[in-house]
User: Fold these one by one.
Assistant:
Number 1:
Amino acid sequence: MQDTDGQGGPVVSYAYKASLIGSAHRFELTEGGLSWHIAGRAGLWRYDEISAIRLSFRPVSMQQHRFRADLSHVKGGRIAILSTSWQTAALMAPQDHGFRDFVVALHARMAKAGSRAELTAGLGRKTYAAVLAFLAALAVAMAGLLIRALITGELAGILFILGFAALFAWQVGGFVRRNQPRSYSFDRLPAGLLP
């Protein structure tokens, strides 16, 4: 959504509900910086005061296609911006185009302001290593169960293990692939971490 900031410049805005209770989190990109309104608090971060952005893919049970942008301020504040919004107790709606447009515009304005923010994508390196270690241990356990099922001739067990492994690889594989830790630049945002 675009308006003007009172000085004739375009204002890009985005809002989402992080929970059923409470007001929406609202953000605007103005000439002065990122204006935010969250849970009764408000502030304005100049674009050159944003010290870091981390983009990630964060699916949840009610929304398998959810993205997140975590912003950090030079004085220690943090803001999370999600690509989904709670509508009802059973519905979390995607806001893909609005989220994408807002994040791309934020990066463009930060680049124009000469920002030196650290731009990272995916999970943190330690978290990602822990996820890979867990998946490796799970793969070894599943292989052991498959070998045992093959040796004992348990056809139902073999089919169950293969089906579970395929479903798990399909569900978790995208998460692991998209959230590989890496850096990016203002002019080359990671396509896999934007809707």
Number 2:
Amino acid sequence: MPNFPEDVFTEPTDVDPDTLANLGPLRRLAGGWQARKGVDVNPKADGPERRVFIETIQFDPIDPQANGPQLLYGLRYHIHITTEEEDITFHDQVGYWLWEPKTGVVMQTLAIPRGQVALAAGQAKSEDDRIVVRAERGQSEYGICSTAFLEYAFRTDSYQIEVVFNPDGTWSYTTDTVLKVHGQDAPFAHRDQNTLTRISDPKPNPWKAILDAKAAKG
């Protein structure tokens, strides 16, 4: 159990309004990104299917968030994926990447429109070039929650994403999800990989933008 304080109500008073300056290892994710050569391996009735996909991700800074004394800085994100073969959305995902400067905890929340949500966590330092967060089914703190059908047909037992910041300014990820597929004895290792290139710079979080606008007016 972490060493939490007795006072769980008092919020910090020295909050920096500039989220971009306080994102730690997440700072390099802020902005817009795109790639056309992502690789997905997913389960099908006649065996694993490998598909190449087109991915766009937008990360926008949010205002600082407090849970009593706990202070978090973060990015709201949206992932949209299509393929060359089909125009329909192949994958859509929204959520937050969060950083707690005091403890070095990194969190990713995710929600997909097929009835699944998760909260994954890990540890990192501000200067790290690699971030890993993980969630497991059945955990009440950092876990996975799915619809009754997904639990029956494609149960997700674990989720992990590794993010690596590359020297050329791109960043890469590998997601590893372990599934229990209905009718199959062995667990299925579902993997996605991609390397993304920046297409837009980040904007300041709303609070910081308001303060900047007021300062500009004098």
Number 3:
Amino acid sequence: MTHVEQEPAPPAPHAPPAIADPAPLGLAAFALTTFLLSVKNAAWTDGTDAWLGYALAYGGVVQILAGMWEFRNRNVFGATAFSSYGGFWLGLGLYVVLIAGEATPAQEANDLGWILLAFAIFNTYMMLWATQVNQAVLAVFVALEATEIILFIGNFATSETTVKIGGYLGVLTAVCAWYASAAGIINGMTGRPLLGVGKPLRHRLVSGTETH
């Protein structure tokens, strides 16, 4: 009997190691920074710009990191949202540090109006596609959309009252984001939906077909 020697099979490619869900971290960073700026806009605080350092560090750098980890998780929605709003906080912080001090109040209000209008446009299509994530995330984007619209109107009109209303809505946005963050943490740790986030409002599209 002849002995046929077989070539050893090539090793199977190793699947990339799973990483922890970065979404609760990104949501928490967004929530806290939004809260600090919003309480100032709402005139609830007698302080100065406590939000600024957190815009650069927590809302900015940490959110961008969460966005990069979402790319690693192949989550294009989370990656785009966290990276973009991380950039928003970094950009806003740098604007205040580098430019706002030399601008008149009217110029600063106009600049902020255009910044917020631009992000309201971005947030509009993100809000529409948040319908495919879950209702908790959708609530964040709906509240944020209202906040940005009211704030850019208030800044263009230099209306303190309108900006205050935007501050109130910003606090609501922060609460929604904190809830979504808390739900992601506790549900991920327990493996059970202890904090409800709601189902997507639309069927997810996969390869051009709808799942049912």
